[in-house]
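My current task is to audit a protein record that another person submitted. My question to you is simply how this chain folds and whether the tokens agree. This is what I was given:
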Amino acid sequence: MSETFDWIETYEKLADYLLKFKNNRKQLLQDLEDVFSQISLKYPFVYGGEPFKDIDPFSIFTTFNRGITDKNRAVIINGLIEKWDINTNTPRTFDAIPLVNNMSAWFITNEDKRGPNDVDQLWDLFRYAINYSKNPEKATIIDCFTSEFDKVKKQPGVTWKITFGLFWIRPNTFINLDGNTRDFLKRHRLIDTESIKKGLTGQNYLEICRTINQKMRKAPFDLESFAALSYQAYIETDELDELDNPDNNVIDLETVSDNQYLWINYNTRNLRNKKIEDLEGTTIEYDWGTKDQAKVRRIRATSILKPGDQAILVDIEPDNGIFARGIVTSEPHPRKNLTKSSHSVEDYVFDLKITEVFDKVPRENVLDLPSFEGVNIRSYLKGVSITDMTEEQFNEIIDYLKEEDADITHERDPLDFTQALTVSSLYFEDKESIERQVQIALLQGKNIIFTGPPGTGKSKLAKVVAEFYQADYKMITASSNWSTYETLGGYHPNKQNELYFKPGLFLSCVKDIQTGDNINQWLIIDEINRADIDKAFGSFFSVVTGDAISLPFESDTGKLIQLIPERSDTKRSKADHLYYYPADWRLIATMNTADKASLFELSYAFMRRFAFINIDVPKTISPELLGNYLSAWGIEGYKYTEQVAKLWSTLNKQRKMGPAIIEDIVQYTQLSDDLTDAVLLYVMPQLEGLSKDEISQFINELDTEVGEMIKTDKLKEFSRDFFGEFL
């Protein structure tokens, strides 16, 4: 189970944005048509061949919370995020979300059957629900919410569905009362069943939310959110269904053979300090937990488990991946544990010896294998049970895992960061310090951002570092339009109008899309703060810090895209859904501090994943210093060293500029003796944003310091044209 429920933030941000359309629904419907056209899915808001003329916000959430595949769910959400430029990520999982029936999905009825105020009432309830989530104690907001709730509840076809919608938009505030949840609340006597039988009102619905929010957090439930409760209700309902329906794929005394094969869901967080890769040959204890509602099924299963049974182990946290095979080595036996409710509960455990460890593979991938065709896979996916398999299924999974786990020869040697960096082609006042900082950051596994004023050589330095360590690289300038579609990838229509996954910028750095070969191409991003980092990088943050992630997209072979940090013992596959990030892969970026205030700010979450190295202008500018730069640039016999040094020093009093612009001036004055023209071409445009007094002061000081080589009349004329007539 995903304890974080990564869809919550996305759903809440979508709800916040939708509120902007409350009084502009015509534009909203147009946007929705655009989105469904862009993602190549059928536009849903049509009745009798005619598109809807009005729409409510809950029905928009219904488009991706009904009986469709998770792939299409993600495609729709991603389309909305990109259309509205919402700063959030497409969810990877959709656990705990109640789904509506496709036959009665919309919250509004047909236009000829609904009341004149029905749509407005749904929008008002939507608005008051969001307001209530921010101010749950404010009496006026409570009154507005309960009043609109009662009005909406009377609309035809709404029924319990309204609690689904409220849960979707604010799952930390409102409880979902679908059938599973209502049965759960009744079964555990968490609520007076009569209050549900009599029908909901806004007042008693809020009271239910408050009451359950308190009770669910205590033993024996220990549920921290309404999403966790919704998920637990779904799980428990499936457990009870399996007891009532022996045809389901669960262990059954009637079907036991001498050789039993098991699918075992295991929470690897229980490993505590152990790593999965270190498990091979060790024995772990499998604990079926202490939940009373599942105890009957556990005891039933313990009567048939026996030493020698073969098992596939599936991690239910955090990304539902198959990670090992094992063998049962003990008879199941009861164990006494003290629970938080201070009474002992009999708990069944057994020992499992791990015989082989695999690189984690999403469970959905193996459930698509031929031997699982026509099989009810619910018990494999829900994450809390032991499910039996046939020998054919077990062997097919093992063969698949070994194929996925096949070694790919690592033909190149890892990059050697122990070699002291030497930047011979560039000159910096504190070059030795910069070289040392860069090398140590690389040795520590850090990615790097070079900061500083324009023209200090940040971009050139980034390329020199990559070339010094013999790393292949690509360089690109960041854009404010970037989203995870450009950086990580997303679905793209082909010529047949079919969707396929198109890798983004980051993924194309580690896999050759044409050959499928794993590669190691560093990425240099110039002016990174021109991008909205949180929106553009998304879950790539996790890869930067060494965590594997799965994207909500499928490859051409129908498998979820995985990004896997590569370690020394990683076995690599050329499978089209696997992208390995080498341990010596690096992202180097540059950031102009002069632009920092006007562009996107970097979040703390982003900054702590990088080493920031400042490349500043020289502290003291002199002819001798400029001479050092001239040597680095390969320029000899330059005759205006003193004048250009004074020009640089004067410029830095008003605006810090690195040596790149000075190099342009030097090269220009090698071809022409007109220093004034060089200043007009390269310096004056950089003064944009200074006050008229500052620009005037610069021109006057230039006249004093440099003398007759500067024609101040031409500079003032340029300033009048470029900055406005104030000189």
About this structure: The CA atoms of residues 47 and 112 lie 11 Å apart. The longest strand covers residues 344-362. Residues 242-257, 290-303, 337-345 have pLDDT under 50 and may be disordered.
